[in-house]
């Protein structure tokens, strides 16, 4: 199932994480901030980054104690039963994320690239491509996205630079007008979009320098938050809060309005949509890979393909359900905030406390831990 030596570099992990975190957050957060906090969305991004840094710190503390892989660490620390429960929790998170990402990715492709296509055809094609990427292995996938990273990043940065000329800084005010509840909701939204960082917990066996894997998460966190700050300031300065509130995907609308020197492209919004298509596809790939890996660990049958196809079927069912029943999207959002988010923190803190208790007891008995 995995390519060659299974190992990827820290640089490749950083770029995979940046793509995973950037696509969904930059596409969704501007609209969320507009409805909640207006110009104060910048402060929500900073608060969300601080909370993300705490999550990353907890992950780093646990990663130091992982000798082989995360599943083995959970079983050694909390026992077989609780280790399995935690793995089921992570599986539910990643497989539902896959379904939601497939829904967003397919909808984006239909809206901007394939207006005459059907959800069934486009969604199935994208899913099969993601399955193929998982079969190729994490190393092959990392190499491909390492190349794509700059082909996407450089045009995006250039478009944002050109857009800065139309920014009206007066639209950045007033600030600090939101109440505590709105600030909390906006910050939690940011943190929810940072949860895919937890894939780092499972990547230690695949990393060439596992002792430095947390640093990759730190770089990705800073990069994604700073890019979101820049994008939101530009969007706010061009559209204003009221106008941005009626746009479905403000950042893609912005790409179509940027005036390029020479007027070479008349529909650069379609071209730049590829940035988010590839970023969402990278996240879909990560989710499928991670869900499959968890199922293989639980079944104790590494390399079996039935786990991959089961994840693919569940992903398609969930994605189609999100498309046909909008109330499921609200349920998914509530699940992310009230179940997945606190659950991620609880597991990491719980494992750390158990590890410390076990270490003290072992030392008291005069043994080595």
Walkthrough of the structure:
With 369 residues, the protein is mainly alpha-helical. It contains 13 helices and no strands. The chain has helices at 10-36, 41-63, 70-78, 80-112, 119-136, 138-163, 180-194, 200-203, 213-244, 250-257, 268-299, 306-324, 327-364. α1 runs antiparallel to α7 (180-194), α4 (80-112) packs antiparallel against α11 (268-299) and α10 packs antiparallel against α11 (268-299). The model has no long low-confidence stretch (mean pLDDT 89).
Ends distance: 34 Å
Secondary structure tally, helices = 13
Number of strands: 0
The biggest sheet amounts to: none
Mean pLDDT value: 89
Could you tell me the strand content as a percent range?
Answer: under 5%
Element-by-element helix/strand order: HHHHHHHHHHHHH
| Oligomerization | single chain
Question: What ranges have pLDDT less than 50 throughout 5 or more consecutive residues?
Answer: none
- Using the CA coordinates, give the radius of gyration: 21 Å
Work out the helicity level: over 70%
- General form: globular
Could you say which structural class the secondary elements and strand pairing correspond to?
A: mainly alpha
């Amino acid at each position: 199932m995995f390519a060659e030596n299974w190992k990827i570099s820290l640089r490749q992990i950083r770029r995979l994480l940046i793509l995973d975190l950037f696509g969904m957050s930059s596409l969704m957060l501007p609209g969320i901030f507009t409805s909640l906090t207006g110009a104060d969305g910048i402060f929500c991004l900073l608060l969300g980054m601080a909370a993300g840094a705490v999550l990353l710190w907890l992950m780093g503390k646990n990663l130091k104690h992982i000798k082989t892989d995360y599943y083995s660490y959970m079983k050694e620390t909390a026992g077989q039963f609780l280790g399995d429960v935690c793995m089921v929790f992570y599986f539910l998170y990643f497989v539902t994320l896959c379904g939601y990402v497939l829904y967003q990715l397919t909808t984006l492709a239909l809206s901007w690239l394939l207006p005459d296509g059907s959800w069934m055809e486009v969604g199935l094609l994208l899913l099969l491509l993601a399955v193929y990427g998982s079969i190729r292995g994490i190393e092959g996938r990392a190499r491909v996205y390492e190349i794509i990273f700059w082909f996407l990043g450089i045009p995006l940065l250039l478009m944002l630079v050109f857009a800065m000329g139309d920014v009206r800084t007066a639209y950045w005010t007033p600030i600090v007008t939101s109440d505590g509840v709105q600030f909390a909701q906006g910050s939690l939204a940011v943190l929810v979009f940072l949860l895919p960082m937890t894939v780092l917990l499972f990547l230690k066996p695949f990393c060439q320098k596992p002792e430095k894997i947390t640093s990759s998460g730190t770089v990705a966190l800073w990069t994604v938050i700073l890019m979101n700050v820049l994008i939101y300031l530009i969007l706010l300065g061009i559209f204003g809060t009221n106008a941005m509130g009626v746009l479905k995907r403000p950042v893609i609308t912005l790409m179509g309005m940027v005036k390029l020197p020479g007027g070479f492209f008349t529909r650069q919004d379609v071209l730049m949509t590829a940035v988010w298509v590839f970023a969402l596809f990278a996240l879909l790939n990560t989710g499928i890979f991670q869900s499959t890996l968890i199922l293989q660990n639980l079944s104790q049958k590494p390399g079996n393909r039935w786990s991959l196809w089961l994840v693919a079927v569940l992903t398609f069912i969930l994605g189609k359900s999100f498309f046909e029943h909008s109330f499921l999207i609200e349920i998914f959002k509530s699940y992310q905030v009230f179940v997945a988010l606190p659950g991620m923190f609880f597991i990491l803190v719980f494992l750390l406390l158990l590890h410390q208790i076990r270490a003290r007891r072992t030392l008291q008995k005069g043994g080595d831990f």
